[in-house]
Amino acid sequence: EDQVTQSPEALRLQEGESSSLNCSYTVSGLRGLFWYRQDPGKGPEFLFTLYSAGEEKEKERLKATLTKKESFLHITAPKPEDSATYLCAVHPDSNYQLIWGAGTKLIIKP
Amino acid sequence: NAGVTQTPKFQVLKTGQSMTLQCAQDMNHEYMSWYRQDPGMGLRLIHYSVGAGITDQGEVPNGYNVSRSTTEDFPLRLLSAAPSQTSVYFCASSRPGTSGRGIRFIEQFFGPGTRLTVL
């Protein structure tokens, strides 16, 4: 069964303390992996698409990487405005529908 | 550009009532989707459309109807509301994925959501 698991469920960091969020997936084949950011009370906002193992994408303090089993969202020297829930979604070979993880809630304390 | 708009923001229904959640986009996107988001779970696709006049079921379509008469609008109808439909509903739109990669839902633009409570 196709599955996406995000960890940890929640992560509290001090401002400037770098860390990584994990998205592990079990699918028959991967066509693409997506990262979104969701602020409280709002809809998800697109961040990155990764298509193949070894690929990396960067945007400001965020860098997404992809292996054959998981993706990491690295956040470097985070600021309070980076606080949000980060969602991962996988597009499997077997289905046109995305499989979404439950998200990681990131809290950055000043 | 307003992007993707949804109305209402909040709604309370009684069991058995029907209602329509409205969704509109002004980006001329061909693809539109409806998702529901429940605590501790990932987004789940309810219905989607790849163009005016074309709709299809997602993962959790039971109890919901959609139609797409224009590119801009994609309303979601709850036929007879049940407490299990209490959720936050998001509408999203996107351009078609590139055929070479076989991906249908690329970068999606989401609306602000409708929080629905069914008593």
List keywords for this structure.
heterodimer, A: 110 residues, mainly beta, six-stranded mixed β-sheet, five-stranded antiparallel β-sheet, 0% helix, B: 119 residues, seven-stranded mixed β-sheet, four-stranded antiparallel β-sheet, 11 strands
Structural summary, described in words:
The complex is a heterodimer of chains A (110) and B (119). By secondary structure, chain A is mostly beta strands. In chain A, 0% of the residues lie in helices and 59% in strands. Chain A contains no helices and eleven strands. In chain A, strands 2, 4, 5, 9, 10 and 11 form a six-stranded mixed beta sheet that branches. A five-stranded antiparallel beta sheet of chain A has the order 1-3-8-7-6, with no helix packed on it. The mean pLDDT of chain A is 95. Chain B has 119 residues and is mainly β. In chain B, 0% of the residues lie in helices and 46% in strands. In chain B, strands 2, 4, 5, 6, 9, 10 and 11 form a seven-stranded mixed beta sheet that branches. A four-stranded antiparallel beta sheet of chain B has the order 1-3-8-7, with no helix packed on it. In chain B, a hairpin with a 6-residue loop joins strand 4 and strand 5 (44-51). The N and C termini of chain B lie far apart (36 Å). Classes of the chains: A mainly beta (110), B mainly beta (119).
User: Element order, helices and strands of chain B?
Assistant: EEEEEEEEEEE
Structural class of chain A: mainly beta
Number of strands of chain B: 11
Helix content of chain A: under 10%
Could you name the ranges of chain B where pLDDT drops below 50 across 5 or more consecutive residues? none
Q: How many alpha or pi helices of chain B?
A: 0
Strand content of chain B: over 45%
Most residues in contact, chain pair and counts: A-B, 24 and 24 residues
Main sheet attributes: strand count, strand direction, barrel closure of chain A: 6 strands, mixed
Principal-axes geometry of chain B comes out as globular
Low-confidence stretches of chain A are none
> Which geometry of chain A do the CA atoms define?
globular
Work out the number of β strands of chain A: 11
Largest sheet of chain B: 7 strands, mixed
Radius of gyration of chain B, taken over Cα atoms and rounded to an integer in Å: 14 Å
- Give the strand content of chain A: over 45%
In quaternary terms, these chains amount to: heterodimer
| Average predicted confidence as pLDDT of chain A | 95
Terminus-to-terminus distance of chain A: 41 Å
Quote the average pLDDT of chain B.
Answer: 93
